[in-house]
Design brief:
This protein is α+β, with helices and mostly antiparallel strands and 453 residues long. It has helices at residues 2-13, 22-34, 91-105, 123-126, 198-206, 260-268, 311-327, 347-360, 373-380, 405-452; strands spanning 38-41, 47-50, 57-61, 75-78, 81-84, 111-115, 136-142, 147-152, 154-163, 166-168, 174-179, 185-186, 211-218, 224-225, 229-235, 246-247, 255-257, 273-278, 283-296, 299-308, 331-338, 364-368, 385-390, 393-394, 402-404. Strand 4 and strand 5 form a beta hairpin. The termini are far apart.
């Protein structure tokens, strides 16, 4: 595994934040070409690397969600776990990318599909214009060992914009309030863990006092639970000042918003959290993440990320959320829609589960309340079969993210065993078809001979 970790560390040194992946894409193409793979790219930045004898396609995205000190990652290894100092690590999906690079170095008979900008709405895979030549695709973006994923949530982002009335004021005393260092979390995987949302927490606090709002903001990304938020406001002279409110350092502000009460009323009950459970897989079925808020150009802007495990659920959830925003006068724009991957208990997934169980000693077939590129690929190529596995990653989409290094080693063993078993399976299947065709020809010949007699 020493070579794998050398590759992983090399990947971490190359900036590859979502939307800024050009350098990483160049590195991947040069790597693949140096090991004799035929490489093709499309306009979106997706890359596929072909092996002449491939019987399986491995797939990962090569962008990462950047929070904290990224893209300059300082790796920390402690007690068998790898993390990055005050930063997201990007193990989702640097682990998958590194494993695919290693497979090419080892001349494994696999095609490797690298997609881009997954973390900002599966943008790359939705624009994919490359040919997948094998019948089976193994996604390496999952975040839990001992598991084969066979379904995922679909999603859509809603951006609401509310016009505000700005009023000028002179000589007012301003206060500020902030909430910071909440745990944060993945907006799908962690939405059912009762993690406090800083956007809601600060509004609840503001709503208890008689204030005139001058500014408010919160949230780090659409696919994370907000861990910090802040506000600037005026308190009427003589009113009680809670201990959480501090005098603003900069007292040069000259405005507030006449719409303060409507703003706070809209924000304090903004849709967030699990809206319906999936009792089959014990995960959320519908959820909303109140991801971000800000005032910009005298407009209140809110961003919400919606997820659902089926298309009907997504329609219902979007209608409910739109209705809430409509009631407060928000103009609504839909962005980054992607489909759900409906449960696919394929023979391919069953074969994969045998390899996982052989290494891990245990395996489960699961669905995940997050987006996987399998969903988009399945819609583009419905005849192909998909499954997803990964290593044990904790606190993804936060600066506390870490990956269990031993689980990565087991993942590598699983993938390599599966590559070999799939190659053998394809040979056996071809032989079986050949024998069946031969047997059919013999039977037909025998019948013809009987007719001539």
């Amino acid at each position: 595994m020493e070579i794998f970790w050398d590759i992983f560390k090399q990947v971490c040194k190359i900036p590859h934040c979502s939307g800024h992946t050009m350098e990483m894409g160049t590195f991947i193409r040069r790597w693949a070409e140096s090991y004799g793979y035929a490489v093709k790219s499309d306009k979106a930045g997706n890359i596929i690397c072909y092996h002449d004898e491939a019987t399986l396609t491995l797939q990962s995205h090569y962008d990462m969600l950047c929070l904290g000190e990224t893209p300059n990652l300082e790796l920390i290894e402690k007690m068998g776990k790898l993390s990055a100092k005050e930063s997201t690590l990007g193990a989702d999906s640097a682990v998958g990318v590194s494993l695919m690079l290693l497979a090419m170095k080892d001349k494994k008979p696999v095609d490797c599909l690298f997609t881009t900008d997954e973390e900002i709405g599966l943008i790359g895979v939705k624009a994919l214009d490359l040919n997948i030549k094998t019948q089976h695709v193994l996604n390496l973006n999952a975040q839990e060992g001992e598991t084969v994923y066979i379904a995922c949530a679909g999603g859509v982002d809603l951006r609401g914009t509310l016009e505000l009335q700005r009023l000028l004021v002179e000589g007012a005393k301003y206060y500020e309030c902030s909430i910071d260092k909440l745990p944060g979390g993945h907006s799908g995987l962690d939405i059912d863990k009762n993690i406090p949302n800083a956007n809601l927490e600060i509004v609840k606090l503001l709503n208890k006092s008689d204030i005139k709002l001058a500014d408010i903001s919160g949230g780090q990304a659409r696919n994370t639970i907000s861990k910090s938020a802040k506000a600037l406001f005026i308190i009427e002279e003589g009113s009680h000042v809670p201990s959480q409110f501090k005098e603003a350092q900069n007292q040069e502000h000259v405005h507030y918003y006449a719409d303060t009460q409507n703003i706070l009323s809209a924000l304090v009950n903004m849709p967030h959290g699990v809206k319906k459970d999936n009792n089959i897989y014990n995960i959320p079925h519908y959820s909303v993440n109140f991801a971000q808020m800000k005032i910009e150009d005298n407009k209140l802007i809110v961003e919400l990320s919606l997820r659902a495990m089926d298309g009907v659920g997504m329609i219902q959830l979007e209608e409910q959320t739109r209705s809430y925003l409509d009631n407060f006068g928000f103009k609504i724009r839909e962005e980054n829609a992607y489909p759900a991957w409906i449960i696919e208990k394929s023979e391919f997934a069953q074969r994969l589960s045998f390899s996982v169980e052989e290494v891990e000693g245990f395996v489960e077939l699961k669905a995940v309340h997050a987006g996987l590129e399998c969903a988009v690929l399945k819609r583009k190529a419905p005849k192909l079969e998909f499954a997803s596995i990964g290593a044990n990653i904790t606190a993804s989409h936060t600066t506390r993210e870490s990956v269990d290094m031993s689980s990565v080693e087991r993942l590598k063993e699983i993938v390599y065993k599966f590559i070999d078993s799939e190659a053998a399976f394809v040979v056996e299947e071809a032989e079986a078809k050949k024998n069946k065709a031969y047997q059919g020809t013999r039977e037909k010949g025998t019948k013809n001979q009987k007719k001539r007699r």
